Amino acid sequence: MESWTVTGVQVDLWRYRWFGRVLVRRGYVTVALPMTGVVAQWLRPGDPVELELTAETDQPGFDDYRLTKLTAEGPVQLWPVYENRFEVVRRSPLDERPLYVYTIRLREATRESDYTAIVDLEQHHYAAEESILAKWVCPEDGAVRAANIRPTCPRCHQPMRFWDLTDATRSSRFLLAELVNGQPYEPRFIGYVRVDPPIPAMHRRLPDGTIQREVRRQVFPLDWFEPTYWPEAYFSSSSETSGSRSNRARLSPWSGRPAPAKQPSSGWSGVR
């Protein structure tokens, strides 16, 4: 890998879940790296990184490079995001011989179609009928609508684009379970897990001795903190309302596992 420096970060709010771009420079060479906005938002101009191009191209795509951020605590791989595969063997209940083998890929959601698949899983398997699951936006005129299926823009009548899940935080990440070798009648996505990276409250003592509480809440926007997934509180409340189907970590009933009950803006920053 070669050492580069971040010179610019582009994160468009209306599509930050599934698209962002980072400019890196080495000498007189500048490369634009496409990635998800949820990853790009953690980089700042001036950050040192290591870049390995895995394809011979002047305009790398999502799958054409590896990017590592250099920190005081050590290197942190930013891209590509997590992915793993494993096999599930279904055996005969009579003699234990293998009947068929499923290959399942676990990977982080990175594309708009991944998030619309999550909305479909929610709508058909988990969410209550009255739940509104997603926000959609028209990038042409800025119209925003909340709906469970992709709506059309009330102004220009074009299909709207996925913006965000209504109950996710800005820092939430999503891990999808994808069936690689399924049949045409079997679903492609069989479940997902939502992960909320902890952003703990932090206090600091000022020179005059007073305590300034929850400093991070004064720096980061509210949607980075609320609503977070709090398992203890969830299971405590679900025991009182056993009919609830809402949860943040879910698997489709198809997978054979029990599922638990239940302002667009854009622009480059720091380009030099």
What does this structure look like?
The protein is mainly beta. The chain folds into two domains: 80 residues, OB fold (Dihydrolipoamide Acetyltransferase, E2P) (Beta Barrel), CATH 2.40.50; 180 residues, no CATH class. Helices cover 12% and strands 36% of the residues. The chain contains four helices and 17 strands. Strands 1, 2, 3, 4, 5, 6 and 17 form a seven-stranded antiparallel sheet that branches. Strands 7-8-12-13-16 form a five-stranded antiparallel sheet, covered by helices on one side. A three-stranded antiparallel sheet has the order 10-9-11. Strand 14 and strand 15 form a beta hairpin. The longest helix has 15 residues. The chain is globular. It starts with a strand and ends with a strand. The C terminus is likely disordered.
Using the alpha-carbon principal axes, give the shape: globular
Q: Name the poorly predicted regions.
A: 242-272
Discrete helix count:
4
Mean of residue pLDDT values: 82
- The total count of strands amounts to 17
Estimate the strand proportion.
35-45%
Distance between the termini: 23 Å
Major sheet summary line? 7 strands, antiparallel
Rg over CA atoms, rounded to whole Å, is 22 Å
As for the number of domains, it is 2
Topology order in helix (H) and strand (E) letters: EEEHEEEEEHEEEEEEEHHEE
- Helical percent range? 10-25%
Which structural class do you get from the secondary structure elements? mainly beta
